[in-house]
Specification:
Distance between the termini of chain A: 38 Å
Largest sheet of chain B: 7 strands, mixed
Oligomer: heterodimer
Structural class of chain A: mainly beta
Order of helices and strands of chain A: EEEEEEEEEEE
Mean pLDDT of chain B: 94
Number of helices of chain B: 0
Radius of gyration of chain B: 13 Å
Largest interface: A-B, 28 and 26 residues
Mean pLDDT of chain A: 92
Shape of chain A: globular
Strand content of chain B: over 45%
Largest sheet of chain A: 6 strands, mixed
Low-confidence stretches of chain A: none
Shape of chain B: globular
Number of strands of chain A: 11
Distance between the termini of chain B: 36 Å
Helix content of chain B: under 10%
Helix content of chain A: under 10%
Order of helices and strands of chain B: EEEEEEEEEEE
């Protein structure tokens, strides 16, 4: 049973354009949500973490929002660069889980073209 | 330099052979993880380790076992590998705590023929 759904599955944008990636989840309870970037053939690198209801974060050209009531998060990438080409993965952590359980989405594959 | 190192990066084995995947970290993180990543699926947790000799099964432990004899080192063992264990395996580590960001290795791509 998939508890973290990401959309779109893939996305192609031109360099300089903005894009928005979506994450919907059913994980309960939900402690925090984290966005990762995964370059092809590499490991996952954390971009940002959201913890509280209606949290908003910003990390350079990356910004993210979290709506815990709707169990929904967005990742905005502004003025995309060719190096933004990667898979972006949404991960939700259980609240108070003794196992520190993380629930991973399948990712959105972003391709930035010149 | 904070880093999780996985060895080997690429491995080809025949069905029935034993496989050893190794993972090291230099940050004295208590918690370490083994995941597998398959196309179209999110990462799936195989095993989690909370410290030396303190390991727990994840969501898909069948066919795998782990060993953690030193805090900085966590091994994944496949006894008699199967073709459906062909995958990319990721090791990660983190300090204790719900919101601690895990640091990932670059993965081991395993093919079982």
């Amino acid at each position: 049973k998939t508890q973290v759904e990401q959309s779109p599955q893939s996305l192609v944008v031109r360099q300089g354009e903005n894009c928005v990636l979506q994450c919907n989840y059913s994980v309960t309870p939900d402690n925090h949500l984290r966005w990762f970037k995964q370059d092809t053939g590499k490991g996952l690198v954390s971009l940002t973490v959201l913890v509280h209801e209606n949290d908003k974060t910003s990390n350079g050209r990356y910004s993210a929002t979290l709506d815990k009531d709707a169990k929904h998060s967005t990742l905005h990438i502004t003025a995309t660069l060719l190096d933004d080409t990667a898979t972006y993965i949404c991960v939700v952590g259980d609240r108070g889980s003794a196992l520190g359980r993380l629930h991973f989405g399948a990712g959105t594959q972003l391709i930035v073209i010149p | 330099d904070m880093k999780v190192t996985q060895m080997p990066r690429y491995l080809i084995k025949r069905m029935g052979e034993n496989v050893l995947l190794e993972c090291g970290q230099d940050m004295s993180h208590e918690t370490m993880y083994w995941y597998r990543q398959d196309p179209g699926l999110g990462l799936q947790l195989i095993y989690i380790s909370y410290d030396v000799d303190s390991n727990s099964e994840g969501d898909i432990p069948k066919g795998y076992r782990v060993s953690r004899k030193k805090r900085e080192h966590f091994s994944l063992i496949l006894d008699s590998a199967k073709t459906n264990q062909t995958s990319v395996y990721f090791c990660a580590s983190s300090h204790r705590g719900d919101n601690q960001a895990p640091l990932f290795g670059e993965g081991t791509r395993l093919s079982v023929l």
